[in-house]
Amino acid sequence: MCAGAGWSRAAKADAPAEVMEITTTTLNELQWRILEAIKREFAPEELGPNLWEDRARQAGVPLPTFYEIAEDFNRRKIIGRFSTFLEHVKPHRDGERVTRFNALFHWAVAAGP
Fold first, then answer.
1. Are 80 and 111 in contact (CB under 8 A)?
2. What DSSP element (H or E) covers 90?
3. How far apart are CA 81 and CA 21, in angstroms?
4. Tens-digit pLDDT profile for residues 11-26
5. How many degrees, rounded to 5, is the angle at CA 38 between CA 16 and CA 8?
6. d(CA 57, CA 88)
7. What is the DSSP code (8-state) at residue 61?
8. pTM (whole model) above 0.85
9. Rounded distance, CA 113 to CA 107, Å?
10. What are the CB-based long-range contacts (under 8 Å, 24+) for 13-20?
């Protein structure tokens, strides 16, 4: 979410996201490489201008090809929702760290330019 687009970190849509039908799709080897590059978590040092250039290089494709396939993923609704799994770990009396609470959050990206 972007504060400059009218969103804050705690913003919530007025209505729930539209439910998407789950379907199976087939990807070729190149598409898999690009999907893996897109979905891999970013390290803090990767964040900045032109962040997809390095991912395209890692996938072994020119940046325009990377963008073209990513746009195709978007059209086919392969990518569009995100989820985060939060885990609260707490030390037990004996010092062992145990998971106490789990939560899975899903959200959709707001449409925009």
1. no
2. strand 81-91
3. 12
4. 666 777 677 677 788 8
5. 40
6. 36
7. S
8. no
9. 18
10. 13/108, 13/110, 17/81, 17/106, 17/107, 17/108, 18/108, 20/77, 20/80, 20/81
